[in-house]
Amino acid sequence: GDPADGPHTACGRLAYGKTGLEIAIPDAAAVTVVEPAHAPAVPDQEAAVAASLRRPIGSAPLANRVRPTDTVAVVFSDLTRPTPNAIIVPVVLAELAAAGVPRERITLFNSTGTHRTNTREELVRMLGEDVVAGCRIVQNDARANGQHASVGTTTSGNELFIQKEFLACRFKILTGFIEPHFFAGFSGGGKAIMPGMARLDTVMRNHDARAMDDPRSTWAVLDGNPMRAEVEEAVALVRPDFLVNVALDRDKRITGVFSGDVAAAYRAGTEFVRGTAMVEVPSPFDIVVTSNSGYPLDLNLYQAVKGMSAAARVVRPGGSIIVAAECWDGVP
Q1: Where is 306: in which H helix or E strand?
Q2: With left for phi above 0 and alpha for psi between -120 and 50, is residue 260 left, alpha or beta?
Q3: What is the pLDDT of residues 218-239, one digit of tens each?
Q4: Which label site among 65, 161, 229, 318 has the fewest CB atoms less than 10 Å from its CB?
């Protein structure tokens, strides 16, 4: 905003793309800023991840869990997530090397879900040139024929088809980040498998109208959430061995690392995020101006729905939501 607008104008900056978006709103007295009380970032990001792998939750250290003869899968988030893959993945690879696992026995899996596969340039941006050049990377293609196998059927009747090469690996490591999610309760955890490594029809059955319309399929609800319950059933059927999830601040820096047993580490992470990333408001607002947390989360309209959904929780019936999202990748 322009200082000449006067003392009654509220000026601020929305997270938008890579640059941010300056906004000016008249009548500053009527403006309330709602923002999370994020924990401070850890001073050494790589060291924090390494320390967590060596002192995990509910598990022996990662290097003690794998054998040099194991085939190892490391699942990482795709471009639509701000997971600091370039920090997490190299540290995980270093721990695997310390355990004697040769690089040729390790495959990195890009858990795209139903999203498009990522270009080499995008993979380098996410992982770094050394990792992309030195590792075998398999991207889940949810629409491909013959690349998925059934692992069983959930209690709701959804047959789960998961990427075959991932299933064939003896030791499976899931990575990701945790934030409140508008229908799965929280992101992270088993979502790396389903929808991350699943076939399109499996994901569509999980994301059907019955599950989406359930009032328990919402922000920060895990217990009783039918969509999250099916994710946990996928975890039970696939049986991943180790979890590495992080919490992030508004600048995408790591504030906490939660590694180890998939269930125990994930619950610890969600409780940490519940206390830092969510805030109560005294009453709904007439107008809510928001974004979708900037790059890479606002890359398309589909992802921007998350910002709309969060705003809908605090706007009055008949009120207005204004969302700023760059959407450089379209709808898609």
Answers
A1: helix 301-312
A2: left
A3: 999 999 999 999 999 999 999 9
A4: 318
